[in-house]
Amino acid sequence: MNTYPAARPSVMDRIGSALIAVRDWLDERGKGAWIIAMIAAFVIVWPVGLAILGYMIWSKRMFSCRPRTDRRSRNADRFQSSGNSAFDAYRSETLKRLEDEHNEFVDFLQKLREAKDKAEFDQFMQNRKEPRDVQA
Questions:
Q1: What is the pLDDT of residue 52?
Q2: Who contacts 34 (Cβ-Cβ below 8 Å, separation ≥6)?
Q3: Are 31 and 61 in contact (CB under 8 A)?
Q4: 94 and 44: one domain?
Q5: Mind telling me which residue stretches traverse the membrane in this protein (predicted)?
């Protein structure tokens, strides 16, 4: 039988969980909220503002177009049914067709690159075989 009391979270654990909660709250509100928080931190305590700026750059929050949560939910919505079976069938058929066209186009571009590389290599070999004027 364990006679020790339940372990309380350390101060660092509580600070870490508070920072995670603040990060999630700012992510829900988007890049503007991050910028406002950074400016406010620079005005109040500049090292904290600098830390926020560094974190925004390191985590790529500074340059992202939309909040992280939107990106996940948008991908999840892409595969949900609209409730209209005819539209869902049309959508899946169209997406399949577009994916096939995309793959064909990528293959075409690859063949085009290979043909260009071969032509350049053939030109190089042709230039290499031509006799050079040797000057002594």
A1: 86
A2: 26, 52, 56, 61, 62
A3: yes
A4: no
A5: 33-58
Asked if residue 117 is part of any domain, the answer here is yes
As a dihedral over the C-alpha atoms of residue 118, residue 122, residue 128, residue 131, rounded to 10 degrees, the angle is -170
Q: The tokens of 134 are what?
A: 């040797």
Q: Tens digit of pLDDT for each residue in 34-80?
A: 889 889 998 998 888 888 888 888 887 766 655 445 444 544 556 67
Provide the 10 A C-beta neighbour count for residue 50: 13
Residue 106 lies in a domain: yes
- Domains of the chain: total: 2
CB 41 within 8 A of CB 52: yes
Q: 120: domain range?
A: 89-129
pLDDT in tens, 91-133: 999 999 999 999 999 999 999 999 999 999 999 999 988 776 6
**Position 80 in a domain:** no
Q: What is the pTM of this model?
A: 0.39
Is residue 112 domain-resident? yes
